[in-house]
Sequence to fold (434 residues):
Amino acid sequence: MKFLWILAAVSLARTGGAAPADLLETAPAEAAAQVHAGAPAGTSGAPRDPGPAPAAPDTATAVPGTAVSPAARLPTDARALWVVRDALTSPSRVRRMVEEAHQGGVTDLIVQVRGRGDAYYDSDIVPIAPRLAQAWELNGRFDPLDMAVRLAHERGMRVHAWLNVYLVAGWGRTPDDNVIYRHPEWIAVNAQGIPMNELSRSDQDRTRVEGVFLEPGNVAVVREFLRVVDEIVTRYPVDGIHLDYIRYPLLDVGYSETMRSGFRRLTGVDPLELQRNREGLLQERGDRGYVELERRWWGFKADQVSALVKNVSLLCRSRRPGILISAAVKPEPALAFSEAGQDWTRWIRQGWIDVAAPMMYSPSGETVRRQVQTLVQLVPPDRVWAGIAVYNQSLGAAEAKIRTVRTAGVAGISLFSYSSVPGGASGLKRLNGR
Fold:
């Protein structure tokens, strides 16, 4: 049976408005069972591409008259700044952030409005973030995203709504209205059948995973996230949507029944057998057969994430032609694919995102040099905004890395993050060469 990717409907409960296309009836994992995904092209040490794939998900049915294509004009010499949500908790903080960014030569503000499955804007769909709700109680109601967009546009800067996709809760106390309590069936499950929110403290400490992730292969997760994106792009004149945590955690999860049954239809093998019956599979299929099966499991997981990226792209471009879609990604494509299911070079090749922001946060200048030299061989440099950290090194060290990535020809840089830059506007000026 051949499945087609259909742009998920976004039922706008707040307005009763029409959905952009037919409802996505099939779970991503079920549709992706028809896909043989390979590693990012040209990546050293990655699995080899297994050859042509059937139609899904590359033949998504778009809204009539739309197409998946890059933004009309990609910014050149972008000087972006990630703004973590703690800078959005009062009108005065938002004003100060925008003004310092403007004085510091920033062209693009990437403003975090979804941190842990919540909203740092006036949402009708997801819970308001606790810190913003507290600020409303103290200072009256205000909309940080509306304010940031308005003030930034007055100063000639672009604003991108930064959304953490699958990471929805930390390990500490989580609000009662968080999605992990409203929909526990959406939580990613490990090979022992344990949802991430039930991991032991020792497992949390051992794996050093950021928190609880949702299951990319769950169709309800796709629908809900598309509703969030639609709310933002229809309500706010943002210049871009920026996807973060658009990957699996660095932990072996993805063993929901939907994922397992989808992979069984593709291969005849339950993915749990890759762990529980390794010796038996080696005897049955040989070394090459086992490696091929493992590679197909990686690709199957990556397809779930890629499907959401494409659906976001279709939705955004149908609502707002010319909007820029970007993603924060792991800086080494082969590892991003095999460890996190993040096939981001494919997203660029297919036009599903316009810009990738590889997070080159290493304090080692040699590591950053190697990473950027590899990247510009795999994707067009004008589709890369190199992510440079400030929180773990001096301004001088960050400046040296910026020179390195600029020399490699990337179209822009993105600094992580606003609150980490010493000296405010003066520090930003120095980093931006202004």
